[in-house]
Amino acid sequence: MRECISFLCAAVVLISACAIGPVGEGSRSGPDEITVIILGVAQDAGIPQTGDDCDNCVAARDDPGRSHRVACLGIVDRLTGKTYLIDATPDLSAQWDILRPEGTLTPGQPLSGLAGIFLTHAHIGHYLGLVYFGREAVGRVGPRVHATARMNQFLSENAPWEQLVRLKNISLVEIRVNEAVELRPGLTVTPIRSPHRQEYSDTVGYIVEGKKRLLYIPDTDRWEEWDLPIEQLCQEADYALLDGTFYDANELPGRDISSIPHPLVTESMRRLEGIVRKRPGSIIFIHFNHSNPLLDPDGPERAALERKGFRVAHEGMRLGL
């Protein structure tokens, strides 16, 4: 009898553990009304990167499961059946195919569920995918593209992007920093200024807010250059997806790390460790350079990061808002 009771207790514990699932991911009992889906986690050039033979790139060529698409988010609103993208990457075609079944689509109109795209800035991995809406590809009246005035000016005045605007393959919508865009009552997207290289446009991150709040900052210079402390922004968010481009100062031998403006993951962890102690799993790193050791799922850097309560973003990760 005691053995039977012990067995039943163990079974209950096991079932309960399986039902809980990963911290901060979508509900297992049913779909969330609003879901953010991570569609890519790599820096602009993807992984493997063209012509590179670092450990991560070699592993990705040997095992497709180790390859990664360029960082991008999908926002799925099941209440309206509409879907939105944050950034239009060189991997847009494959990323949109992942999102298509999530929304309400009109037969014969493959982009009918795509209600809008929000751009962060004019570096290649973040807007290059817009070309796939052009004459050589989709070639129809296309989605609304939300971007700052300077980003819109860049797209309107430079080929081939100006052709997309002229032919209405994309429709530009100006957004302003710290002014929320209401997608519908109960769902907003707010651009926030991100200090980062500004050769062609300014740079923004986004706060996506439903019943919960998500902070997305894929590209930034060091946290010391922000007007608001990153600790405050992360404290106010249920999920924070942060620039994880480089892990530490040893990642790029032969280069002066001070000339690379991205915050190092090791520095970010030191600043934010108090938050994850209280809310494990709430801070997630994304936008990894091909050299980043966090891309090795069995590496000591990944294990150490997760022990501290941080997470590494992966394609297909779902965050319910």
Key terms:
321 residues; alpha/beta; Metallo-beta-lactamase, Chain A; 7-stranded mixed sheet; 9 helices; 14 strands; 26% helix; globular
Short summary of the structure?
The protein has 321 residues and is an alpha/beta fold. Helices cover 26% and strands 21% of the residues. The strands form two sheets. The protein has a seven-stranded mixed beta sheet. It has a seven-stranded mixed beta sheet with strand order 7-8-9-10-11-12-13, with helices on one face.
Q: Helical content, roughly?
A: 25-40%
Integer-rounded radius of gyration? 20 Å
In the predicted model, the low-confidence regions spanning at least 5 consecutive residues are 1-24
- Beta-strand content bin: 15-25%
How many strand segments?
Answer: 14
Kindly provide the name of the CATH class.
Alpha Beta
* H/E element sequence: HEHEEHEHEHHEEEEEHEHEHEE
Tally of individual helices: 9
Any idea what the CATH architecture is?
Answer: 4-Layer Sandwich
Q: Structural class, from secondary structure content? A: alpha/beta
Query: What do we call the CATH topology?
Result: Metallo-beta-lactamase, Chain A
What does the overall shape look like?
globular
Distance from N terminus to C terminus (CA atoms, Å) equals 46 Å
Average pLDDT figure: 89
Please tell me the total number of domains: 1
CATH superfamily: Ribonuclease Z/Hydroxyacylglutathione hydrolase-like
Biggest pleated-sheet summary: 7 strands, mixed
Strand order of the largest sheet: 6-5-4-3-2-1-14
